[in-house]
Amino acid sequence: METLQLFVVLLSVCSLSYSKECQPYLMENIDFPGTDITFLYSPDVKHCQYLCTQHPSCLFFTFIRQDWTTDNRNFYCYLKSTPTGQPNVQTPLLGVTSGFSLKTCNLNSKPCLSQVYQNIDFYGSDYRFLFTSSSDECQTFCSKDPNCHFFTFINDAYTPEKYRYKCHLKYSWSIPRTLIVKKEVGIVSGFSEQLQMSPYLEPACQRKLFANTNIPGNNLETLPAAGAEHCHALCSAHPTCTYFTYNNNDFNCYLKKNPNEMVKEAKVGVTSGIPSRFCQLDNDWLKVDYDGVHFQGSDIRNVTMENADKCRKACTADRQCQFYTYFKDSHSNSDYRGLCFMKSVITISAPPKVSKLNNVVSPHWITCFFWGLCFMKSVITMWAPPIVSKLNNVVSGFPLKSKC
User: Fold this and answer.
1) Model confidence over 242-255: pLDDT tens digits?
2) Residue 23 is part of which domain span?
3) I want to staple 321 with a disulfide (CB 3.0 to 4.6 A). Which of 37, 232, 303, 342 is the partner?
4) Residue 353 lies in a domain
5) Three-class SS of 44-86
């Protein structure tokens, strides 16, 4: 009976989601004025369309192109919605391109982002800097670094000269984040068990948490999280997070950055920990029902379910659902009782700001290979530390690069 109910719910959801015609086309120099939800930065119109597709409420959009000259809103991606799913007005306007969400197009994979943008800067989100001989080499570094989602390379004509050949590797959140987490009686929230919080790796991680322990200062970013294990996953996904502290009372996850030291202090009600790298995260926390916790907003749809367990299973079976909130029969508002709210957020790589800047190159990651002259030479290649000395309570060694 439970399987039949889940099938009926998913059938109705699919009917609701895909009853409208797929509209992948773009309308150049046409504006959809008004009905804005928000705006985000995009380097081009296709990226803007993907942002609209992943936003839980966006149904159509207007993108302000690089050739727009009326003001400085170049690269603005306006996400929009109406009850009918269609823009109220369509007007001719030079320098913009409009289009529709691809939610009804039944896309099966993440978009491939490989476009190169000349004289466009992806401002912010830097986590590593290095100097490379060309933008192609900068691309290679980004492509081989799993944390790199886009980059900016400064060419040999940039002023001031001291920044030439600088390669900025940049990070963007690619895992779902609950935007608002609150306490509320009569509510259960949780996650889809299909969430991919990290690439599959071996061996399994040994999670390191410190109960009733605070690590003060050095805050990198503060995010809402359902629990300490969720906070651990967020820290593990961020390339510069060195440790974290989670407050059990207000659901705040404090990502911290200090690679030099970690000073701990006793504090009741908080949990701290160290991120896990190069191993498979334990995602058992995805199967937990968080009673009395409300994941507010980011709704993509709601359906009536008998209990929170069936709501979680419905979210897990729905490829668009990342997390959910279920209103129990004990909730104070009878209008919401039994409703399962399925939720989703944007996970596509998105620069925090896009702007014009001469003599820079800003593509998304691309894998490149290079050919050149071959000079046959020989030097000592066995790894050798510069100094070796005794020191209690430390462990040193070599990486597992190859078999001996």
Assistant:
1) 999 999 999 999 99
2) 19-105
3) 342
4) yes
5) CHHHHHHHHHHCCCCCEEEEECCCCCCCCCCCEEEEECCCCCC
